[in-house]
Amino acid sequence: MPLRFTLRQMEYFVAVGECGSIALAAEKVNVSSPSISAAISQLEAEFGLQLFIRRHAHGLSLTQGGARFMTVAKELLDKAASLGDLANDISGQVRGPLNVGCLLTFAQIVLPQLRRSFVDAWPEVEFHQFERDQQELFDALRSARIDVALTYDLNVPADLEFIPLIELPPFALVHEEHELAHLDSVTPAELADYPMVLLDLPMSGDYFLSFFTKLGITPMIAERTRDIAVMRSLVANGFGYGMGNTHPATELAPDGRRLRFIPMTGPVRSLNLGLLMSEGARGSRTVRAFIEHAQAEITETRAPGLQVRPKIA
């Protein structure tokens, strides 16, 4: 008798294997937990295998057979996805699912309008977006949970490809009555005597702190936050200065208070905003279409919400 299973069941199985939890897998693939449980049970019954060891306190762990099964299941899902890419190439159409990640520090500035213009141009694409920190984007690309990511060239590993789109020099931001607010540019040494509100995300925090370590200076970190909107509001309310690379369309913090953005000089490195992808991602016609669209919107015409302050020599 032929085996009876669906690619959807395989997708749910792989999600549970990667997450180690039915609840987390359900959140990842956006279905109910009972649907995930039913798919796993159906696969185990169909193949006559126990795929997971169920531990109430520690979630689910793959059995030895389940781990081998998952390797082949991933290959099967990759092959199935390639059929869609092949169909698009043969028909010359851009359609099907596209999973786009974006660094959460600038997702609100860049991604919505870029998505809007892309889906208007290619309405048959099923666009899904994911805001993550830098390490999470690396992991999502390697596990094929996303197809391409918008991010910075920050600690990019050798197994991923980065396409730069636009250079963004760093700036300091202060509240409008700060003692340094009148300056046209500012150095890390000038900032060091004032309290800092650090955007403390993986890799991003180290990037900003490197401005000071290069000078042998220890900055005065008064507050840390993982939310760039919170950082801006803390700065606007006088709790310290902040640093960033993407300038929003307005000089107001989320709570409506005014900010002053000051270009930074000295031993500070600009970041390139660009596209990050796994090897072979360009084989997808839909991914190629998104690359070309992002290059046109950001590199050539510059997305309206992406304000770039001039770099001071």
Please state roughly what percent of the residues sit in beta strands, choosing from under 5%, 5-15%, 15-25%, 25-35%, 35-45% or over 45%.
15-25%
- The shape, in one word, is elongated
Low-confidence stretches: 308-313
The helix tally amounts to 10
Please give the order of strands in the largest beta sheet: 4-3-5-12-6
Main beta-sheet annotation = 5 strands, mixed
Structural class: alpha/beta
Average pLDDT for all residues: 89
Quaternary: single chain
Quote the distance from N terminus to C terminus: 73 Å
Q: Please state the CA-atom Rg, rounded to the nearest Å.
A: 23 Å
Q: How many beta strands in the DSSP annotation?
A: 12
Give helix % range. Answer: 40-55%
Order of helices and strands: HHHEEHEHEHEEEHEHEHEEEH
Family: Belongs to the LysR transcriptional regulatory family.
Protein name: LysR family transcriptional regulator
Pfam families: HTH_1 (PF00126), LysR_substrate (PF03466)
Keywords: DNA-binding, Transcription, Transcription regulation
What descriptive keywords fit this protein?
single chain, 313 residues, alpha/beta, five-stranded mixed beta sheet, 12 strands, disordered C terminus
Task: Describe the structure in your own words.
- The protein is an alpha/beta fold and 313 residues long.
- The chain is 41% helix and 22% strand.
- It contains ten helices and twelve strands.
- The chain has a five-stranded mixed beta sheet.
- The radius of gyration is 23 Å and the shape is elongated.
- The termini are far apart.
- The model is unreliable at 308-313 (pLDDT under 50).
- It holds the Pfam family LysR_substrate.
- This is LysR family transcriptional regulator.
- InterPro entries: LysR_HTH_N, LysR_subst-bd, WH-like_DNA-bd_sf, WH_DNA-bd_sf.
- Keywords: DNA-binding, Transcription, Transcription regulation.
